[in-house]
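pasting for the record
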Amino acid sequence: MPDILYQTVIFIDLDGTLQLNPFERAIWPQVVGEMAQQSGLSAADILQMIEDENNARQRDDSVPAIMAMDLDDISLTVAKRLGVSITTSVTELVNTYAKSHSSLLEYALESLQELAAPHRAIVIATKGLAKYQLQVMDALGITPLVTDTLTPDTHNGLKKHRHFFGDWPERAKLSIMVGDLYDDDVLYPSGHGFKTLWKPRATLIPDSLSHLDPFTRAQDFPYTPEQIVHPTGILLSLRELPAAVTHMEQHCL
């Protein structure tokens, strides 16, 4: 068992939490557009096929995590089903558009800078493969502000798998997951024994909860019947993240 080196390890999701990647604005229009032109199907229908294939692979435990999230292979698989060929490489397009078509969400870098402290490890935890994420992180200035980056390539796992996180939880007294997706960033990490800070789309948070602190907000949030596991806190903005982590360090250890 590794030595405990930190008081807190903060796992932070990337897409939808800290950044917007170039897929929606630059990559899918080219990949899907090429398939649509040859097949006669709408771009929306083809994009849905890609999403369905991605989700099916994630649900199938017989599919290695790396293949479940390999958008190059998923695009080729969908193209074959449609009887078309594509010359566009997702990886090459990410390399081309990482800087020009990616953006930081509000207060992303500032929150990472405020979280920085010797007793904390800040670890990116993303389902995106390294070949899609690392150059975007570099372009946006995220890389120098984090301790480590975990992708499905790291331990051939997804967030639903405990081994995705490696030995980081054993290297700290408190593990916190921060992210925007309920299953990946609340349900699964809670099952691993982590505390969770959920940052859902702002439109999901009723105005009546906006003035509350993240922890009271999590208690009063109108969860769906399926959302049985509740987060430790709910963030309206990344501006709330540093203070929320400090509060958890004071009350959850």
